[in-house]
């Protein structure tokens, strides 16, 4: 899926998706939930916490 397509589905700008992919942006819980829902997976399958 293109960044533009995902961004449109979850209601953010394409740049936000790009920054998520690069690790430059931490998503809100709502955004993480919407992305996971789009791909029919759990949040934990997409996002991890690194200390």
Automatic annotation (TrEMBL):
Annotated HTH cro/C1-type domain ranges read 1-46
Q: Which GO terms describe its molecular function?
A: DNA binding
* Keyword list, A-Z: DNA-binding
> Which PROSITE patterns has this protein been placed in?
HTH_CROC1
Spell out the protein name for this chain.
Putative transcriptional regulator
- InterPro entries annotated for this entry? Cro/C1-type_HTH (IPR001387), Lambda_DNA-bd_dom_sf (IPR010982)
Checking SMART domains in the record gives: HTH_XRE
């Amino acid at each position: 899926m293109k960044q533009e397509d995902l961004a449109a589905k979850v209601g953010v700008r394409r740049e936000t998706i790009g920054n998520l992919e690069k690790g430059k942006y931490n998503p809100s819980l709502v955004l993480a939930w919407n992305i996971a829902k789009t791909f029919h997976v759990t949040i934990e399958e997409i996002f991890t916490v690194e200390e």
